[in-house]
Amino acid sequence: MKKISIIIPTFNEESSLCRLLTSIQDTKYPQDHLDIIVVDDGSTDNTKKNAQRFTNVRIISHSKNLGRFASRKTGFEHAKYSDILFLDARLTVKNDIFLELNKITSNAAIGLCLSRKNENAYETFHNLILKKIFPRFYQNFGKEMMLSKKNFDELPKGTGVFYVSKAILKKAYLHLSTTEFSHDSSDDTKFLKTIVTFTDILLSPKVKVVTYSRTKLKAIIHHLFLRGAKFWDYYGDVRQKNFWKIIVLPFLIFTSLFTLILLYRNESIKIAIGIFLFWTALTVWIAGISKKMICVFLILPVVALSFYAGILRGMYIHSRFSKK
Fold first, then answer.
1. What pLDDT, on the 0 to 100 scale, is given for residue 322?
2. Is residue 44 classed exposed, middle or buried when 0-12, 13-18 and 19+ CB atoms within 10 A define those classes?
3. Domain architecture of the chain: domains with CATH
């Protein structure tokens, strides 16, 4: 059986970390084959204290918040074994996850992130919009696929549950040694883009985790705002397909809508009806005719405003950086 180093980067995850560590302990796998490393990235809550309750966990602390890329690299530098599994703190693992990882022969694999049974409005919206952005993946849902340089922007990816050999990681970190990552960098995407230059990544539907999204509206808005800036860092390039689909097209739509509002500002009833019809059409496009329509209709303004405000922030940051 494989011996696996599990690296969990954390920042103020006191409420979710214990849930993840408990799920790892409950797996059908010899615990002495697991090297669990929690990288506390300058947390100001009880994250470290909660991790210390688990005797089989090694804790490495940063004196200040350095970001996810630095945290994962710190974990990599302290890993005992040649097989590495990165896990986000805000999830739980299925009890057969390590048995499934034991069957994998690829140098790298991304697992399947499932929503909890009682998903909130944001999780519902997020899952539906992913189906629109990555139709090919969801048309083949449940099947193994390979992520490569050629199809990198056509398939969903992330490091929430990412398995990779230490040898490939070493090459990737060496390649990125001169790259500067800030809190606004699209570090996950750029990291995986580097990995596929050395090996294709298996998208495995059998390596499963359950994700727990933020539940408070303020936290969701803040997360989306930050995600918008990160999205621009990678996709703010006219050569990217998603630049036109996710950035340009929505801005053209909202600009046209705003222009119509200005032109017909004295006809408030017509404007209100027009906005309602537009929002309803967009909701139906995302959710179809289903029970999820109301949920999407209500959360859509919050998501759109937060995310695209973040994109504007990313554009501003990038322009300032470019001038230096």
1. 57
2. exposed
3. 4-211 (3.90.550.10), 217-323 (no CATH)
